[in-house]
Automatic annotation (TrEMBL):
<dbReference type="GO" id="GO:0008764">
    <property type="term" value="F:UDP-N-acetylmuramoylalanine-D-glutamate ligase activity"/>
</dbReference>
<keyword id="KW-0732">Signal</keyword>
<feature type="domain" description="Mur ligase C-terminal">
    <location>
        <begin position="315"/>
        <end position="428"/>
    </location>
</feature>
<protein>
    <recommendedName>
        <fullName>UDP-N-acetylmuramoylalanine--D-glutamate ligase</fullName>
        <ecNumber>6.3.2.9</ecNumber>
    </recommendedName>
</protein>
<dbReference type="GO" id="GO:0005737">
    <property type="term" value="C:cytoplasm"/>
</dbReference>
<keyword id="KW-0131">Cell cycle</keyword>
<feature type="signal peptide">
    <location>
        <begin position="1"/>
        <end position="24"/>
    </location>
</feature>
<feature type="binding site">
    <location>
        <begin position="119"/>
        <end position="125"/>
    </location>
    <ligand>
        <name>ATP</name>
    </ligand>
</feature>
<dbReference type="Pfam" id="PF21799">
    <property type="entry name" value="MurD-like_N"/>
</dbReference>
<keyword id="KW-0961">Cell wall biogenesis/degradation</keyword>
<dbReference type="GO" id="GO:0005524">
    <property type="term" value="F:ATP binding"/>
</dbReference>
<dbReference type="GO" id="GO:0008360">
    <property type="term" value="P:regulation of cell shape"/>
</dbReference>
<keyword id="KW-0963">Cytoplasm</keyword>
<keyword id="KW-0436">Ligase</keyword>
<comment type="function">
    <text>Cell wall formation. Catalyzes the addition of glutamate to the nucleotide precursor UDP-N-acetylmuramoyl-L-alanine (UMA).</text>
</comment>
<comment type="similarity">
    <text>Belongs to the MurCDEF family.</text>
</comment>
<keyword id="KW-0067">ATP-binding</keyword>
Length: 459
């Protein structure tokens, strides 16, 4: 970790705790800042605030009093989830106080190269692929995963060495709070409309994503999805060396698909069918990861070996089990129709689809054309009736309503035959029945194991 003096003896307000806030506060404290921590949760129920108080930091809990800003703070470091229209954040910006996220802090003290990955979809899978590719058969150094993927960057940077690398998943929320942040390699997987409740407009959302390349120079690299015309246009504004990846055309200076073979520059890397995780979206994720791995010096045989065995990130078209010829996949992270469409398009086999969850008021008309290979649809939750209607319109032969994901698994097995895929891809958020998509996905996996145990016990 670099010994920076930017924050030494400076008054810094850390706004919002959770993992990123706690670790930002600890890093600032280590850098000699005079840290005040402010969290909405009451002190009695706030173990993070209690811990930071014991570490010698000032703690204010139970709300976000705007009056705090009368104390002449020089910086505010906010939790990415706190919106910019929050009164205390808005007041700080009005007073000209820099409002940062912990990603900016991490960058300032990092002493190894950073690979930053952003985009609307595919960030976590691409981040994980890159780390696996760089860590396989490496003789020196380690690739550490950090950021939006779950481990705060401000924690990871404290332990890395010069020969290491940080593979950082970055949300638009995190990038919006950066000033000098500059990854050596930036990756933009794709751009669609998202988080407009936070950013206000699509233009603001896209601008936040483009923060990833704002400070890059020609010595840095921008790996970008060339199949999106908007990203081609946006890449023109970057000073970095652009490395395109494309499924649709041969690109001279990047990764492309020709026939069934993936190439980097003019070097054949692997057959696309050898990539274990299904779907065109995962092909794009793999192409982005290949570009980074080659830029970082990884050998082609290692790239092919890793991607041929990469089973996916948990809850993201994750391969779970092959039992009696049925392949079970957990795609609980699919909380919208686009994600479910991507998952379905990854299979050529007949699919038993398990879908449902929270009703956000949308219909499922866009899902209908993609249900053609679905032989059985099992629906649950608040959206069961809407999904049933979509299935009937698509001509799905068998549609069953069940109470929840756990009840869907044995029904799906009974519907299926050898060679079929059983896919949980809900197209809905989980919150009406499950605390998170992770809890929902774990329930699906547990139900599969219970099903197998019951079948084998009865044989």
């Amino acid at each position: 970790m670099k010994n920076v003096t930017t924050y030494k003896n400076k008054k810094v307000l850390v706004l919002g705790l959770a993992l990123s806030g706690v670790n930002a506060a600890k890093l600032l404290h280590k850098l000699g800042a005079l840290v005040t921590v402010n969290d909405y949760k009451s002190f009695e129920d706030n173990t993070e605030a209690q811990e930071l108080l014991e570490d010698g930091m000032r703690v204010v809990t139970g709300g976000h009093p705007v009056e705090l800003l009368d104390e002449d703070f020089e910086f505010v470091v906010k939790n990415p989830g706190i919106m910019y229209n929050n009164p205390i954040v808005a007041k700080a910006m009005e007073k000209g106080i820099p409002v940062l996220t912990e990603v900016q802090l991490a960058y300032e003290v990092a002493q190894c190269p950073i690979v930053g990955i952003t985009g609307t979809n595919g960030k976590t899978t691409t981040t994980t692929m890159i780390a696996d590719l760089l860590n396989s058969k490496q003789q020196r150094g380690k690739a550490y995963v950090a950021g939006n993927i779950g481990t705060p960057a401000s924690l990871v940077v404290q332990d890395v060495a010069d020969e290491d690398a940080i593979i950082m998943e970055l949300s638009s929320f995190q990038l919006l709070g950066t000033t000098t942040f500059k990854p050596h390699i930036a990756v933009i997987t794709n751009i669609y409309s998202a988080h407009l409740d936070y950013h206000g407009t699509r233009e603001e959302y896209v601008a936040a994503k483009m923060q990833i390349t704002k400070n890059q120079t020609e010595e840095d690299y921008l790996v970008v999805n060339w199949d999106q015309p908007e990203l081609r246009e946006l890449a023109l504004a970057s000073k970095a060396t652009v490395i395109p990846f494309s499924r649709q055309e041969m690109v001279e200076n990047g990764v492309f698909l020709s026939g069934e073979t993936i190439y980097y520059l003019n070097e054949p890397i692997m057959n696309k069918k050898d990539i274990l995780v299904p779907g065109e979206h995962n092909l794009e994720n793999a192409m982005a990861a290949i570009a980074v791995a080659k830029l970082m010096g990884q050998e082609t045989p290692v790239i092919k070996e890793v991607l041929a065995s990469f089973a996916g990130v948990k809850h993201r078209t994750q391969f779970v089990r092959d039992y009696k010829g049925r392949k079970f996949y957990n795609d609980s992270k699919a909380t919208n129709t686009l994600a479910t469409i991507n998952a379905l398009n990854g299979f050529t086999q007949p699919v038993i689809l398990v879908a449902g969850g929270l009703d956000r008021g949308n219909d499922f008309d866009d899902l209908v054309p993609h249900l053609k290979q679905v032989k059985g649809l099992i629906v649950y939750g608040e959206t069961a009736a809407k999904l049933t209607q979509a299935g009937e319109e698509a001509g799905v032969p068998s549609i069953v309503t069940v109470q929840n994901v756990e009840a869907a698994v044995p029904v799906a097995y009974d519907m299926s035959e050898e060679g079929d895929v059983v896919l949980l891809s809900p197209a809905c958020a989980s919150w009406n029945q499950y605390r998170s998509f992770e809890v929902r996905g774990d329930a699906f996996i547990d139900a599969i194991e219970q099903l197998i145990a019951n079948i084998e016990e009865g044989e």
